[in-house]
Specification:
Length: 56
Amino acid sequence: MAYVISNDCIACGTCQAECPTGAINEGEIYSIDPDICVDCGTCADACPTGAISPGE
């Protein structure tokens, strides 16, 4: 299951830089493309606000 980004995102770009597959897209709140996400959790580990969690 792909990870998801909550409204706690501050769009700092830290997660995007860490994503090995390029699944994270910029925006006011970043988003993760579930078709590209490999569920590695690297983005969640890098997020300074804890806005990224495993999807359901």
